[in-house]
Write a structure and sequence with these properties.
heterodimer, A: about 220 residues, mainly alpha, 9 helices, about 85% helix, about 0% strand, elongated, B: about 200 residues, alpha/beta, Rossmann fold, five-stranded parallel beta sheet, three-stranded antiparallel beta sheet, 6 helices, about 25% strand, globular, transmembrane transporter activity (chain B)
Chain lengths: ~220, ~200
């Protein structure tokens, strides 16, 4: 399983992996907001966590459709499925999600504090937003895996994956953003929404790979 | 160990391609599947591999317990695609599959030597020619052990010398007590114990 993880991270970082594209997209989305909203620093600080979250969410949906499609195109998926008989396919999907998260989403989390400065956020607010992103974005990858597995045989599945996945990630977004707000605005609490978000990440870490594995098994043709 | 296919029916898009295909393979036996294009060779192999549901009948592996509980777990499948990543080097590709598939068999440098490509392990796979990629895909069959090889047009893109080399590898696998199910137009210079003509 470690071999699969290393292979996928390598593929994500090397040419054609598109890990940096996500960061550039994230940067573009967040950098454009101040121009659109205008130079009202208080307003920017207030919408900052939400913009960071929405930007990171959209950027992490970008490469999601290639999660299984690249493997399907070169025949690797058949072999992953066949070996999945010996050791659960869902586990392989889980590892692929983790590798996808490491290569394409973790850079977004690393870039988030700098982009928080663009939004005139307080240091503690930046810290809270980064922390929620760190623990919330894996849920997006796990839910996305199920969407990507359903759309794996469609040649232009990218948009479909996003549409399938978005409704399911909205709860994660809500609790992630409200936890980030809770860290800076009194009397809103930080911990309850943060813990709910963590619970969702754990829940989808189990459900997403199982659903994706079932979809992949039936997609073979 | 016996591989038994009982009255298999194959279907593609609701249309029956073949029906009532049965065969039995024991250790050390090879089955050559021949037939015209579209006669269902690939479908048969994918059904045996468990990648496609059979419309009827069943494939079972007898006497494989506890190491090889079913056909899917006991098989190497070499399809039309090579299942290799162009961005990784040859050695990285093979090492990833060996570690993922388990049951390491032949060390990677030796496997590369057996397919005659022992000097290019460090190159990214994308730089290789079609035939060389195919030979690397064949090396994947060697680096981790599976008793059953399911080969779909294994020699597509190979030159004459590589075909001979591959025939020797298959012969060695059969001698080792393995089983081979190969769909191909060429007899590959191997002494096949059985032949199945599709569409006849």
């Amino acid at each position: 399983m470690l071999a699969l993880y290393i292979r996928d991270v390598r593929l994500g970082i090397r040419s054609g992996g598109g890990a940096l594209v996500g960061v550039l997209f994230f940067l573009a989305v967040v950098a454009v907001i101040p121009f659109g909203v205008g130079p009202d620093l208080n307003l920017l600080a207030r919408i900052g966590p939400a913009i960071l979250w929405i930007g990171a969410l959209l950027a992490s949906l970008l490469g999601l459709d290639r999660l299984f499609q690249a493997d399907r195109d070169d025949g690797s998926l058949d072999i992953l499925i066949m070996a999945g008989e010996r050791r659960m396919l869902a586990l392989a999907v889980f590892v692929k999600c983790l590798a996808h998260w490491t290569a394409s989403v973790l850079p977004l989390v690393v870039a988030a504090p700098m982009l928080g400065l663009f939004m005139n956020m307080e240091p503690i607010g930046i810290g809270a937003a980064t922390l929620t992103l760190l623990f919330g974005t894996p849920a997006i990858a796990f839910i996305g895996a199920a969407g990507a597995a359903v759309a794996v045989s469609l040649p232009r599945g990218g948009l479909l994956v996003s549409v399938l996945v978005l409704p399911l990630v909205i709860p994660v977004l809500i609790f992630g953003v409200s936890a980030s707000y809770g860290a800076v605005t009194e009397p809103d609490p930080f911990l309850p929404p943060f813990l709910l978000m963590l619970a969702m990440t754990l829940f989808f870490a189990v459900l997403g790979p199982v659903a994706a594995a079932a979809a992949l098994r039936w997609s073979a043709d | 160990m016996r591989l038994v296919a009982n009255e298999l029916d194959g279907e593609r898009g609701g249309e029956t391609i073949f029906s009532g295909v049965s065969f039995v393979l024991t250790a050390g036996e090879g089955l050559l599947v021949t037939g015209a294009n579209g006669s269902g060779k690939s479908t048969l192999l994918r059904i045996v591999a468990g990648l496609l549901p059979a419309a009827g009948g069943a494939v079972t592996l007898e006497g494989g317990e506890p190491d090889w509980p079913d056909v899917m777990a006991a098989s190497h499948y070499l399809g039309h695609q090579n299942a290799l990543k162009p961005a990784l080097s040859v050695t990285e590709n093979l090492a990833a599959w060996r570690d993922y598939l388990g049951e390491p068999h032949v060390p990677i440098p030796e496997a590369l030597e057996m397919v005659g490509l022992d000097e290019i392990g460090h190159l990214p796979l994308g730089y290789l020619s079609t035939g060389q990629k195919r030979r690397i895909a064949i090396a994947r069959l060697l680096v981790s052990y599976r008793p059953v090889w399911l080969l779909d047009e294994p020699t597509a893109g190979l030159d004459r010398a590589s075909e001979t080399q591959f025939a020797a590898l298959m012969a060695a696998h059969l001698e080792d007590g393995g089983m081979i199910l190969a769909a191909t137009h060429l007899p590959l210079g191997l002494d096949w114990t059985h032949e199945l003509r599709m569409g006849a």
